[in-house]
Amino acid sequence: MTAGDRFLIDGLQYCNWSEKIFRELRAGGITAIHVTICYHENFRETIANIAQWNRWFQDFPDLICPARTADDVRRAKREGRTAVIFGFQNPAPIEDDLSLVEIWHQLGVRFMQLSYNNQSLLATGCYEAEDPGITRMGREVIREMNRVGLVIDMSHSAERSTLEAIELSSRPIAITHANPSSWHDVPRNKSDTVLKALAGSGGMLGFSLYPLHLKGGSGCTIRSFCEMAASTAELMGVRHLGIGSDLCQDQPDSVVEWMRVGRWTRDTRGAAGPLGAAVFPPQPDWFRNNTQFAGIADGLAEVGFSASEIDGIMGGNWLDFFERSFGAAGQEQPAQNPAARRAASKGV
């Protein structure tokens, strides 16, 4: 596969969307992005976010298009557009109603985190002092998400909750935007125990480029990042890896406060954990916007990845995951029960 044929897929972005950014996506050759349409919004507010995306699809049809399947992503690539996949970073839009899981899937949502930093009705976030694991409702929601084809995302969840979600889910889950804590030890990054379990169940990890998740922060070098990817490949197997940049381009600093505290507290300084000032840190100079996305492939090559492995990490692995994950139960590829998935992943 040549560089021009390669699928470039970003497993998570939350930019301040504009024509400028849509044109940068096309200039960078980005095939698809998973975009956050909920942090703390309720059902009605999230519907309004979808309405805004529908207006953008109407205003910029030559640049972006909605995607609900892997075939939609392939079509976008053929047509020279960027496919947009919706996801939630918080289960707030399902409120306390199990039936809303299927409705959100019908509306085009394909990823949902079971918790965002805090305890939710479903699972525990990574900044809670105690992690009692998946709740009773969480077990029911996991079963329903598996049934309809809504991917479980545990990027902001605590360790026990994440491990239980992997075990309880009959389909592979994702951690769309995080890095190994063995490389950079912050609560949002994931332990080797979690990463091994994720790979053993057929799941996906998207490497984050958000500076707080990077060793060296904004000064992290592309060499360090790609060396981390290489060591993670040894731990998990290359086919379980992708990019989930967590790019928040052009967002005002007020959005950081919204992410961290939402409406659950008035404490805008200390409630969100030891994250420092509520400002966006500068991106590394080698990934400031989507025009630089493809350059990551060069760094991966320099640390020893083969061309086919790079194709996978840059997007092919996400595309395969979409193929297996976005349809209703029974439409996925074979070997989806936990024991068979673990057996299939050995030796990768």
Describe the structure.
It is a single chain. This protein has 348 residues and is α/β, with parallel strands linked by helices. The protein has one domain (9-345): Alpha-Beta Barrel (TIM Barrel). The chain contains twelve helices and nine strands. The protein has helices at 19-27, 43-59, 70-79, 99-106, 136-148, 159-168, 192-200, 222-236, 254-261, 296-302, 307-325, 338-345, and strands at residues 9-13, 32-38, 64-66, 82-88, 109-113, 151-153, 174-175, 204-207, 241-243. The strands form two sheets. Strands 1, 2, 3, 4, 5 and 6 form a six-stranded parallel β-sheet that branches. Helix 4 (99-106) links the parallel strand 4 and strand 5 (109-113). The protein is globular. The relative contact order is 0.15.
List the main descriptive attributes of the protein structure presented here.
348 residues; TIM Barrel; three-stranded parallel β-sheet; 12 helices
- Note the total helix count: 12
Enumerate the spans where pLDDT stays under 50 for 5 or more consecutive residues. Answer: 333-348
Instruction: Compute the number of strand runs.
Output: 9
- CATH C-level class is Alpha Beta
Radius of gyration: 18 Å
Structural class: alpha/beta
Order of helices and strands: EHEHEHEHEHEHEHEHEHHHH
In the CATH hierarchy, what is the architecture at level 2? Answer: Alpha-Beta Barrel
Q: Main sheet?
A: 6 strands, parallel
Please, how many domains? 1
User: Which band does the percent of strand residues land in?
Assistant: 5-15%
Summed over residues and divided by their number, the pLDDT gives a mean of 93
Helicity, as a percent range: 25-40%
CA(first)-CA(last) distance: 21 Å
Q: CATH homologous superfamily - what is it?
A: Metal-dependent hydrolases
CATH topology descriptor: TIM Barrel
Large-scale geometry: globular
